[in-house]
Amino acid sequence: MEPVQTLRIAIQKSGRLTEKTITLLENIGIRFDGYKNRLLVKALNFDVELLLIRDDDIPEYVQDGICDLGVVGANVTLETQADITILKDLDFGHCRLSIASPVSRNINSAKELGGRRIATSYPVLTRKFFDSLGLDVHIIKISGAVEITPRLDVADAICDLVSTGSTLKTNGLRELETILQSQSQLIRTNKPLPQHKVDLIEKFLVRIEGQLLAEN
Ligand code: PRT
Ligand code: ZN
């Protein structure tokens, strides 16, 4: 089979990172002719294409070399434990992964949660954090609406992403501890790439660095 030569970049199909990612790529000079409701989009002016997928799948697609580059939150890359290289922090999609518990429960520290039930979409990172405290907890993996689980008595505390903190507040939860600071990153496959892709990635990196400097 002929090797694929077009530089393929995995980005989030539809979510918080999508628009900012497209804007960044356009700001460094890559032109696209519409990307909504499409899975694979070719650039008009470079030998580049975008694969639009769920953010959770991006690190593994890059790890496996299905895509050469990806734009995804550090929270997702670390949770999937993918073997990739981080090329650049992109300074958007900032958030933190935090432990929170109901205000009504009078828990003041994550250290008080040994033996308790913790609901999260980030079981790997949550387990690592409690292991580092030497605490055993029951981790309940939930894919969405984690913040409601203490009220339903499904969990005693949660580990979830926070940006403004208003979701926690609305749900009567108090942030106890941040276990990870996250932002979007440009990641690269560790699989060997042909020289023209290496050169193109280098060129884009220089432009991204210039763009980030200009924004700050
Ligand atoms: O469909 P797909 O799987 O691609 O999308 P998704 O629903 O998994 O992800 P999406 O689009 O919600 O988020 C994509 C990425 O944005 C995350 O992986 C983070 O890297 C980043 N990000 C930045 C956030 C937030 N800020 C954020 N606030 N992701 C989620 N949230 C949620 C959080 O889970 C909680 O429900 O927003 C709520 C808290 O927000 P505040 O402002 O009330 O604190
Ligand atoms: Zn997701």
From TrEMBL:
<keyword id="KW-0808">Transferase</keyword>
<feature type="domain" description="ATP phosphoribosyltransferase catalytic">
    <location>
        <begin position="54"/>
        <end position="209"/>
    </location>
</feature>
<keyword id="KW-0460">Magnesium</keyword>
<keyword id="KW-0067">ATP-binding</keyword>
<keyword id="KW-0963">Cytoplasm</keyword>
<dbReference type="GO" id="GO:0000287">
    <property type="term" value="F:magnesium ion binding"/>
</dbReference>
<keyword id="KW-0028">Amino-acid biosynthesis</keyword>
<comment type="function">
    <text>Catalyzes the condensation of ATP and 5-phosphoribose 1-diphosphate to form N'-(5'-phosphoribosyl)-ATP (PR-ATP). Has a crucial role in the pathway because the rate of histidine biosynthesis seems to be controlled primarily by regulation of HisG enzymatic activity.</text>
</comment>
<comment type="pathway">
    <text>Amino-acid biosynthesis; L-histidine biosynthesis; L-histidine from 5-phospho-alpha-D-ribose 1-diphosphate: step 1/9.</text>
</comment>
<comment type="similarity">
    <text>Belongs to the ATP phosphoribosyltransferase family. Long subfamily.</text>
</comment>
<dbReference type="GO" id="GO:0000105">
    <property type="term" value="P:L-histidine biosynthetic process"/>
</dbReference>
<dbReference type="GO" id="GO:0005737">
    <property type="term" value="C:cytoplasm"/>
</dbReference>
<keyword id="KW-0547">Nucleotide-binding</keyword>
<dbReference type="GO" id="GO:0005524">
    <property type="term" value="F:ATP binding"/>
</dbReference>
<keyword id="KW-0479">Metal-binding</keyword>
<keyword id="KW-0328">Glycosyltransferase</keyword>
<dbReference type="GO" id="GO:0003879">
    <property type="term" value="F:ATP phosphoribosyltransferase activity"/>
</dbReference>
<protein>
    <recommendedName>
        <fullName>ATP phosphoribosyltransferase</fullName>
        <ecNumber>2.4.2.17</ecNumber>
    </recommendedName>
</protein>
<keyword id="KW-0368">Histidine biosynthesis</keyword>
